[in-house]
UniProtKB/TrEMBL annotation:
Domain Protein kinase: 1-131
Cellular component per GO, a single term: cytoplasm
Originating species: Lotharella globosa
Pfam families: Pkinase
Keywords associated with the record: Nucleotide-binding
Entry-linked InterPro entries: Kinase-like_dom_sf, Prot_kinase_dom, Ser/Thr_kinase_AS
SMART domains: S_TKc (SM00220)
Source organism superkingdom: Eukaryota
Protein name: Protein kinase domain-containing protein
Length: 131
């Protein structure tokens, strides 16, 4: 397990080819949790190919041990978040880099809103960096 959020768990996994990926597991004990998870799936499907969004490689809904369900989402692995960058003491971004990152976040949020979705949990831990 590499992360835990308010409603999900994130794991580092390997596929059959040995490629390291990210698996997000969302326990769905109630219908409303299942509906929220499926909304997340729809959001990633709709945002496919848009700048600033992870590519949803696969998803599945499975029965859980306790009789409820769990939704599994598979993504490329992003090793670092904005939070990690700051905590690891990498320092602050220079003005140009900070402005560029802020613009990318704003554009991604605008695309998300235009598609009819609201993020609802924007924080440094959820801003993933590719380098």
């Amino acid at each position: 397990q590499i992360a835990e959020g308010g409603y999900s768990y994130v794991y580092r996994v390997k596929d059959q080819k040995g490629q390291t990926l990210c698996l997000k597991k969302i326990p769905a004990q109630h219908d409303d949790k299942l509906a929220n998870a499926m909304t997340e799936v729809k959001m990633f499907q709709r945002m496919k190919g848009k700048t600033g969004f992870l590519e949803l490689l696969a998803h599945n809904t499975l029965p859980a041990r306790n009789g409820s369900k769990e939704v599994l989402l598979l993504f490329p692995l992003m090793e670092r978040s904005l939070f990690d960058h700051v905590v690891e003491g990498k320092g602050v971004f220079d003005e140009k880099k900070a402005a560029g990152l802020t613009r990318k976040i704003a554009v991604a949020l605008s695309e998300l809103h235009r598609a009819g979705f609201i993020h609802g949990d924007l924080k440094p831990q959820n801003v993933l960096l590719d380098k």
